[in-house]
Structure formats: C-alpha cells, structure tokens
Amino acid sequence: MLPRRTLSMLVLLALMTSTLACNLSSFVMELDETAVAEGLDRTLAARTVDVPHEPSPSETPSPTPAETAPMVSVSVNTNCRSGPGSDYEIVGGLLVGEQAEIVLLSSIPNFVIIELPDGSGQTCWLWMQYGTQEGSTEGLAIATPPPTPTGGAPPGASYSFNASFDNVVLCDENRYVTYHVTNTGGGPFQSYRLSVRDRTEGITLGIQGINFVSTASCFGAIYFSTLEAGGSGYVAIPFDYDPTGHNLEATILLCSGEAYDGTCTSQTVASVP
C-alpha cells in the first residue's frame, strides 16, 4: 500500500493533468475555428471576379452592313466573249435566271466584265443590251478591250472613209463602174458592199466583196483583203450595159469584219459618168 503522502501527490498530478487537457482542448478548438474562418474569407475573396458591364440597348453599336457585290442578270440568254463584240471568241454565256458578279467596267459603252457563275473563275465581256444590274459598280476599275483575234483594231477605234466616183472601165465585154475609197479612220476595213442605183434606167445593182483593188485598170490590178488605216484602193461593180451619161447614185458600205460585220460605216456618192 502506498504511503499517504505519495497518494496525495498522485491525486494532485491527476487533477493538474485533467485541467491542462481541458484548457488545451479549448485552445485547439478556438485555433481551429479561427483558421477556418480566415480560410473561408480567403476563398471567397479568391472567387470574387469583376462582372463586365452589360451595355444597354441604346449603347449597343449597330452592325455595319456588308457591302454587296454588283450583280447582273439577263432577260435573254446572252453570249459572253473574250472582248466587246462579235469579233471576239465566245467563252461562255449568261442564261435567263442566272446571276453573275460584275468585276470590271468597260471603256466600251454597254459592256461589263463578269465572272461566269459556273465556278470556273473565268471572266468575259457581257453585252448589257438585255442585262439588269443590281448593286453599285462605283469604284470598279475600267478595262480596255484586247486586240481582236484577227489582229484588227479593237472596238472604240474610229472608222471612217472618203469615197468618190472614179471611172467606167470596159473589161471582158462588161463595163465596171469604179469608186475610189480612202480609209481616214484608225481601224482597218475587211469587207464591203456596193449598191448603185441607175436613176436614168430605174435599175439598182449590187455587189459585195472581201478584196479591194489597187488600181481601176483591168490590167496589173493587185487585190488585198484589208484596207488599212490611211490606205486607199478601189471597189467596182459590173454593168452589162453602158451606163455612161446616166444619173448614178452609189451607196458604199465598208466593214471591219470579214463577213460584213463588226463596225460598218457607209457613204453615198452621186455621179454622172
């Protein structure tokens, strides 16, 4: 059995330990609650973000409308060529119900350059006789036509000539009334039509050709197919009678194309041989 003094000290030690344990538990509890509170504050602070300002309907900018490319449609199926006019090759066409984008303007009136709507990226010159444009072409560049496939002057070149009565020539029992023509324009002529009205007899004769003659004589004549700018030559029409002294009126038509097409211009020449 323990002595009374020892037993008293053990009881006192037990009481001190119990008191210290209670105080330590209270301190730990208070420390944990403080740490949790501070951690929660930090967490909430970290999650706080700036909410962007939502503009009111009056502050919202209106979207800028996108520019619409100029388009063209046709009321009649229309060929599209490598240049402005029938002298140029057909490279496609625009059909009724289709639309094509206008990519260039033309220096030749009533034509535009379009991109074919078949997705090929091919461009060509469209005659606007049957075309309807939608959208503005302001700012588009202006294209000048290329030379014709035959090497002639492009559309837009001036075409003019002077003509005069020359003579009545007897050749092979026929009499030819000849007219002298001079190309005073900037483009070549490659075909002609000549019509002569004999007002004395009330008869009209006509002829067409693709060759000009270098001389009005029956001998030594040289034929050439193109009457170049500044050049001159002769056109003639045969009569099976002698029209000398009759009142003749000739209409001469010269054309830039070989088939009496392209750019054509005419003159009327009155004469009494």
Structural description of this entry:
This protein is of the alpha+beta class. Among the domains are: 71-143, SH3 Domains (SH3 type barrels), CATH 2.30.30.40; 161-271, Sandwich (Immunoglobulin-like). Helix content is 16%, strand content 37%. It has one helix and 17 strands. It has one helix at residues 4-47; strands at residues 71-74, 78-81, 90-94, 100-106, 111-115, 123-127, 131-134, 142-143, 161-171, 174-183, 191-198, 203-209, 212-213, 223-224, 232-239, 248-255, 264-271. Strands 1, 2, 3, 4, 5, 6, 7 and 8 form an eight-stranded mixed sheet that branches. A four-stranded antiparallel sheet has the order 12-11-16-17, with no helix packed on it. A three-stranded antiparallel sheet has the order 9-10-15, with no helix packed on it. The protein is elongated and about 70 Å long. The model is unreliable at 19-37 and 43-49 (pLDDT under 50).
> What's the average pLDDT?
79
Content of β-strand: 35-45%
Helix content: 10-25%
Largest sheet: 8 strands, mixed
Low-pLDDT windows of residues: 19-37, 43-49
